[in-house]
Amino acid sequence: MEETLRNLLEEAKRELETVDSIKSLEELRVKYLGKKGELTKILRGMGNLSPEERPVVGKISNEVRAEIESLLAAKRDEILKVEKEEKIRSEYIDITLPGKVHEIGHKHPMTKVLDEIKDIFLGLGFSIAEGPEIELDYYNFEALNTPPDHPARDLQDTFYITKNILLRTQTSPVQVRTMEKNKPPIKVISPGRVYRSDETDATHSPVFNQIEGLAVDEGITMGDLKGVLNLFAKRLFGSDTKTKFRPHYFPFTEPSAEMDVSCFACGGKGCRVCGYSGWIEILGSGMVHPNVLRMSGIDPEKYSGFAFGMGLDRITMLSYGIDDLRLLYENDLRFIKQF
Amino acid sequence: MLVSYSWLKDYVDVLVDAKKLADDLTMSGSKVETIKSYGNEIKNVVIGKIISIEKHPDADKLQVGIVDVGEEKLQIITGAQNIKVGDYIPVALHGSTLPGGVKIKRGKLRGLESNGMMCSAKELGLDESLLPDYQRNGIFILPELPIGEDIKKVLELDDVIEFEITPNRPDCLSVVGIARETAATYRKSYRMPEIKIYEVADKNPANVTIDADDLCYRYVARVIRNAKIGPSPIWMQMRLLKAGIRPINNIVDVTNYVMMELGQPLHAFDLDKVKNRHIIVRRAKNGEKLVTLDDKERILDSEMLVIADEEKAIGLAGVMGGQNTEITDDTVNILIESANFKGSNIRYTSKKLGLRSEASSRFEKGLDPEITVMACNRAAQLMAELSGGEILNGIVDVYPKPIEEKVLSVRHKKINKLLGTNLTIGEMKNILTFLDFGVICDGENLVVKVPAFRSDIEGEADIAEEIGRMYGYNNIEDTLLKGTQITAGVKTREQKLEDLVKEVFLSCGLNEIITTSFMGMKDLDKINLPDDSPLRKAVKIMNPLGEDQGYMRTTLLPSMLNVVYTNYSRKVSDLKAFEISRVFIPKSLPLEELPVEVKTTVIGMYGHDVDFLTLKGVIEVLLDVLNVNNVKYVRSENTLYHPGRSADIIVDGECIGVFGEINPDIEENYDINREVYVAELNLELLFKHAKDDERKYKLLPKYPAVERDIAVLVDKNTFVADIESIIRETGGKLVDDVKLFDVYTGENIPEDKKSVAYSIWYRSYERTLTDEEVNKVHDKIIRKLNEKLGAQLR
Ligand SMILES: [Zn+2]
């Protein structure tokens, strides 16, 4: 009987080698270890054994069962591994096929540049102010130290609605409205549309966008104006950017200055973008004129401030190398989607 | 303002080249636009005199000239026809160069040797349009000049610097003014032209009356007798030419020359044509006529100032003289006018008549009345020298209210505080002195006497600018608001919400567009806007660029449809776009107060995957992200939209927008052969209903939900939204979620019916629901659907 058991084990081992699927493995398990299987059949003959022999045979039969079970388990693992490998092999795909895209929209390039400028100034403690586009002459000119007969009015061709109401020619009136409503410290930028009666061409549009800035507090100096705008230029155009301040004239600032930045296209060596000068004019600025402070209800003896303004369209064109302003307002999606 | 460098050097000693000068002056406040170098490419071009001219034997159109160039006489062939024997002309010798790198060499023309070239003004790089005919058509005929002399020297072909002078500095619209800035920049001194007047004994016979002393502040005049009119000398002509002024004759040229030199516009009258030699400065009569020097009849009004005699207007004050007293070749006696007018009045006249001149563009900025006498004397001196005339005894000077000297007291400390500098009081005084300010130090203050030509200087800040610019802005140390209070940069709620709207649109695949804010009434016709629509009440621009841009837009729709059309016509296959901008809604017309500017958004779409539901999906995501609740979509009655494919968005009973397919009639108007879907939303109303900032955490469910599906047959016209609301109302708190998963018509469904299928999730947040509980509610829902909508369970 002992020998029968050993033979059974050998036979099971032999048969196991030909098994190559979970199904035939299960059949094999039933054949040897099932309720009606070979092992059970053999053990049925245990009754004929002497009481001395029974424990010995019992032990051997347990050993054989355990052995077969462990062989079956090992074989099972082996088969599963092969099957998994095969499955993975069958799942190979062409990874160069194009992706399934949920197309997202693109911001207008001017918004991209504006967002960047906003971020820089928000970080410097400037809030964002807004004002009307249809504005009173008072805010657009008079309160900005530009009375009706002022020659500076000739520099801006104004669209008028009535004698006293016009389309703002600059975002500067927001300065006045902000100062009227708030007490120093004031730090705001004010982006928005402005209007001048220029015919549309590659560099002009009757509607364009400016960003105004204003800081008013005790002890603000022209050094602060330079420091803040220099930092701004480095953030927007790159840390190698140099700035240069040239005296200029605006009715509502005194002293006034224009800021040039070193050309970011050529690094200052001179190229087409900068008109071979190495510098690009970016913004107008100055210390807020005491008359403007006074008219807005701020005491110029106690407070001082600086203001600046820049053209978003122009900076956008420079930043992306866009050579025709009309592209910005034409909205061909093949253009917009480049940004 | 064009300034010849050689001319500038008459008044200030500078050694740097023009480029360096331009850079330095730009940094001290006189911005240089360009530098035009007239002479630097010209080599070996000299003055020649034509000795003989013969026809070329073998060419009809060529002439053979013998030209005396001093050391030799050259045979030169030319095609020009305007030359004659005895003419003085520029000759480019063998081996010479001309502007543009042109090299001239000896050569043969139709068999005859040509030893150089006779030059035109254009070939020398000059602006021919300013020259008289005889000099323009062909060779540049010159007056008598030393033969063989270098043309660059004779014609003063130097560097001409173009300055951009800001309107606050009319004093810099003169060579002397630029010399003053140059001198201050280099801390040097400058000199004024030397003026010597030799008067004859006879008295000046002219007299002047100012009848409008509110518009004419000063009138200075002199009389020149027995002048001989002719061309002015070449050096003066060249200086005017380089300044962009046309040379005319020795009298007119002097007035222009002195204007360029000193900044004071002058006018010369033919005194014999001035009735009774009496100049009257008065307002024009309404409708009064005057033919100006440019040969045009001007109709004047009573706001305009004229120079008149006892019978007629003879000049438009400060703008242009009259033809009736013009200097002609026969003029003998001349009255020189050197006056000062009110800037804003000159500006008015010049604008109203559309007539700008070198004089008016100076006067309108406000000039210094103190320079009139000097300018008049300078002109008299030069006219006498150039025309052989005599200066009559006595200068007329009518100056009713002499201007007062302006003295400012400014604080040394305050100026440093404004600039962020540490300049000593001495350094400040030094700078101001070089700019012709009179300065006395008074303790911590500077008492500053402002020169009369600096009408722009009004207070401390102006003085600070003078000091700052001459010290150099770039020498001021950069600081970062070190002495000031810290502020936080913040966006308002509306600004944040606007950003959020943009984010939602972008992530839904919409591209941002930006269009201009104008519209024409035709745009509104094109969108079939009803005649009585309030959107036709638009803010009108008084001086628009064109009819199509005559109004401020009240709707973003036309701009969007134009962009849709642009893209459609360029074969862009799909378009999804949005714009956020303002529309302008007047409270009354004509405008009495500022209109309401409403932030609005418009969406436009067409394409293979675009239909009503694509657009509605965007709206739904937007409202979800902004946490807008109680939203209803109601079939829209807006006639701009497709009646069956559009909806109003109603939030808490308020309409905040409309969307859907644009009415097919409008698609036709725009020639767009596709279904175009648009949405218009009032962002201010949207933000009012946005509860984005009121979100609160809700407990996650602990107990499982029971899902039941339901499919019913209903009338085809039933809104699914009504079915859903019956399910929710009936189920009450136990209905956790409802989802439509199928709408079906067609086979096995009666023609007038549709099958609608929902999944309903039942859930309690307190316990696990039993089957019985769920069945009870579910059955009740089926009953209610049947009662209210006649829905049949499938
Ligand atoms: Zn460059």
TrEMBL record, chain A:
Supply the Gene3D superfamilies for this chain: Bira Bifunctional Protein, Domain 2
Q: Which domain of life is it from?
A: Bacteria
Q: Check the record and name the PROSITE patterns matching this protein.
A: AA_TRNA_LIGASE_II
Q: Where is the Aminoacyl-transfer RNA synthetases class-II family profile domain?
A: 111-318
Going by the UniProt record, its keywords in alphabetical order are: Aminoacyl-tRNA synthetase, ATP-binding, Cytoplasm, Ligase, Magnesium, Metal-binding, Nucleotide-binding, Protein biosynthesis
Chemical reaction(s) catalysed:
tRNA(Phe) + L-phenylalanine + ATP = L-phenylalanyl-tRNA(Phe) + AMP + diphosphate + H(+)
Q: Where in the cell is it found?
A: Cytoplasm
Instruction: List the EC numbers from the record.
Output: 6.1.1.20
Task: Write one Gene Ontology MF term.
Answer: phenylalanine-tRNA ligase activity
List positions binding Mg(2+): 254
- Principal localisation: cytoplasm
Q: Which cofactor does it need?
A: Mg(2+)
Q: What does the entry's cofactor note say about binding and number?
A: Binds 2 magnesium ions per tetramer.
Which PANTHER family does the annotation name?
PHENYLALANINE--TRNA LIGASE, MITOCHONDRIAL, PHENYLALANYL-TRNA SYNTHETASE
Subunit details for this protein? Answer: Tetramer of two alpha and two beta subunits.
Query: What family does the entry list?
Result: Belongs to the class-II aminoacyl-tRNA synthetase family. Phe-tRNA synthetase alpha subunit type 1 subfamily.
- What is the name listed in the Swiss-Prot or TrEMBL entry for this protein? Phenylalanine--tRNA ligase alpha subunit
Per the UniProt entry, what species is this protein from, by scientific name?
Thermoanaerobacterium butyriciformans
Gene name of this polypeptide: pheS
UniProtKB/TrEMBL annotation, chain B:
Q: Does the keyword Aminoacyl-tRNA synthetase apply?
A: yes
Per the UniProt entry, the Enzyme Commission number(s) are 6.1.1.20
Q: Where does Mg(2+) bind?
A: 456, 462, 465-466
> Which reaction equations make up its catalytic activity?
tRNA(Phe) + L-phenylalanine + ATP = L-phenylalanyl-tRNA(Phe) + AMP + diphosphate + H(+)
Outline the extent of the TRNA-binding domain.
39-152
Where is this protein found?
Cytoplasm
What cofactor is this protein dependent on?
Answer: Mg(2+)
Keyword annotations from UniProtKB, A to Z: Aminoacyl-tRNA synthetase, ATP-binding, Cytoplasm, Ligase, Magnesium, Metal-binding, Nucleotide-binding, Protein biosynthesis, RNA-binding, tRNA-binding
Q: Which domain of life is it from?
A: Bacteria
**GO molecular function: any one?**
phenylalanine-tRNA ligase activity
Location (main, coarse): cytoplasm
- Report the residue ranges that make up the FDX-ACB domain in this protein: 701-794
Respond yes or no to whether keyword Endoplasmic reticulum is given for this record.
no
Q: How is the cofactor bound?
A: Binds 2 magnesium ions per tetramer.
Which PANTHER family does this one have?
Answer: PHENYLALANINE--TRNA LIGASE BETA SUBUNIT, PHENYLALANYL-TRNA SYNTHETASE BETA CHAIN AND LEUCINE-RICH REPEAT-CONTAINING PROTEIN 47
What HAMAP family does the record point to? Phe_tRNA_synth_beta1
User: Could you say which protein family the record assigns here?
Assistant: Belongs to the phenylalanyl-tRNA synthetase beta subunit family. Type 1 subfamily.
Protein name per the record = Phenylalanine--tRNA ligase beta subunit
Species this chain originates from: Thermoanaerobacterium butyriciformans
